[in-house]
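Page header: ASSEMBLY MODEL / two components / 767 residues total.
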Amino acid sequence: MSEEKKVSRRKWIKYAGAGVVLAAAAGAGYYVTQQRPTVPTSTKGPPVKIGVMMGLTGPYSGNCKKMLDGANLATKQVNEAGGVLDRPLEPYVRDDELNPGVAVRRATELIETVKIEALFGTLGTHIVHALNDYMKKIGKMYFACCIPVVLTKKKDTRSPYTYFMLPSSAAISRSGGEYCSTLAKKWYLMYPDYSGGVEFFTYFKERLEEKGGEVIGTDAAPLGATDFSPFITRALAAKPEGLAWCGQLGTDLQNALKQSQGFKVTEKMYVFSGNNTLTDSMAAGLDAIKNVYTFMDFYWKLPREPTGKYVQAYLAEYGEYPDTYSIGTYTAIRAWADAVNKAGTTDTEAVKKVIDQMTFDWCKGPQYFRWDGQCMQDLFFVKGKTPEAVLKGRKTEEVPAEERFDIFEFIKEIKSEVAEPTAKEEGYE
Amino acid sequence: MSDTETTELSVKWFRSWQGLFVVIAFFLIAPFFLPLSIVSDVMVFTMAVMGFDLLYGYTGFLSFGHSAYFGVGTYATAIFLQSAMFKQIPIPDTWFWLAIPVGIVIAAAAGWLGGFLTFRARAGVYGTFVTIAIQFSFWWAMLKWYWVTGGENGIVNLPFLVFEIPGLATISLQDMHSAYFFNLLVAIPVFFVAYRIVHSPFGLILRSIRENEERVAFLGYDVHRYRMYSFILSAFLCGVGGALYVIYYRFTGLHTIDWLSSGDLVIMSVLGGSGVYWGPIIGSFLFIMIKDYFSLYTWFWRLFVGGTAIIVILFFRHGVWGILEKVSRATRIRREES
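Prediction written out in full:
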């Protein structure tokens, strides 16, 4: 090849590379306007700033996107109702990359540079741990919108300004164990092999056995496992009356349920999943969740007026039905804004005094904050419908959205007061 | 510019150790106009990248698992602090600073083990694969050993250091600013030591190994031994970064020891300029600033970070330092001609 052609190819690569960067920059410019809702101006003063942070990139970005949607909807509704202290509410969104070091670094920027009044969001107990510690030092409110573990809520660990919007691992597991004891006596338990999974499993087993159930076998699957067939085979060989997936989340749960159906497990025994969401269930598919009993802390078809209002607003805004992760940030921002308006100030201590006494019901039933910052709320058990019941002989694309998302049969609700750890367990007594 | 040419800038400070005073001045002043945690991360990762670059930039060996030693440094420091806090190690609060040398020594020991295993597979691509395996082994150990390391929750709520000057004052690092300036006090001599290492005859031998390993062997030097020394020193520097990370944040977790962090070290080194003392400082600053800046505006910030790294690798082989050098040389030549 001639020297001339070599030079041309290099130039072509340079120009192509520059073109890609320019195109990406243009795309980023477009997305800048999509990140936050438009904040109205006000003559009463500058906007009240809040931080919204979650793993927008990384393995749980899908769930985190739902959290952001909930936060944006809450902000919009707060501003439509007149804002906070007659000033608009302005969210500042940050990606914590599901990395606790990055989360603290970006929280530092939000607090020192942007000067936010409170922080909302975050997914992952490791992030909550790190931020709880940091926010305790800073003395700012932090609303953690993921499942908390008991360790973070203990008296000597928790910041007095940290609040936990979703039910704890103990509440989810204990209520699951108690409910499963009513379905069958002999259970085989599966859990993901990491400390969080062990916690789910321990609480589930403890309550199941307390209520007369029997654990005839257990298995710990590696976190991120894609092949659950060896575990399912061992479970089937033990001949239990029920198989419980205690603590699998996200793609782990999707794979576990799909492969269970491959073995026709639900035809042989009860199957329970302790930690399901609408997003995960839709991703797993109707066949995977068929006849699976599951715990949820939110379902869009709850027969309650606030749920209906929230669902309609979410549907109008995003064109899909809301999930568990959206209600955490939504409820937290609405509750905080309400508390600030009642307190008449954004001062942390004053707002805390109000919010600790408040009861609110934005989307799923009455909720309030307990002495350990835990948001107390109703918990629900549902059962996956069969594909025939949902599709009714139609193709998926022919089914209207409302029916396509109506994939669970509501069974019962329980109060989190019976399942959350006691004051003694958390070191408050 | 070839790899053997001396790296010099027109600004005479950066021709010698006096340039370090500029770096120290930056770290002293930056907290007043940048968020503190960003500056702290730049300082901590500068040391980790210096460690990585001692191996990659000076001996030419690419380790894709170097966050293992940074992570071991953080965990060793954190476990010591936690044990001391719960009186499992019976020392008073004013002796908690011992966690720093403990973390560093354990990281260096891990480096010895890592180097031993890596270079049994020989340097080159086989050795690189071994470094990845070692890093995953450490990561997995920290995940599974959860009753000590906290698993995926990490170790949090660590105590802050307290220093007592008898009869004078008690200094506590509870405030993040105090912790940062303490870390800077520790980092300054480490920067000087690292400078001395790379500009010593030892550093020259390492560079020679990168240029022509066979010739160095024929000159009578034990190439394997020098590689091992550089691996241990590199883990030592990563361990310093790790220990100071824990002193500032007072927590640690799997994110300090995962493969993404290893990749970040490689990008920072390449971005700043590998094989050059100032490269890690420039690279860690630019990388953290680019990441944080772009993530404000788009979720696709990884595209920009990756794109920047690709452009630098393809067209600016010696990183940003190489660009500064070219500009400096062109300016000097123009000045001489005019």
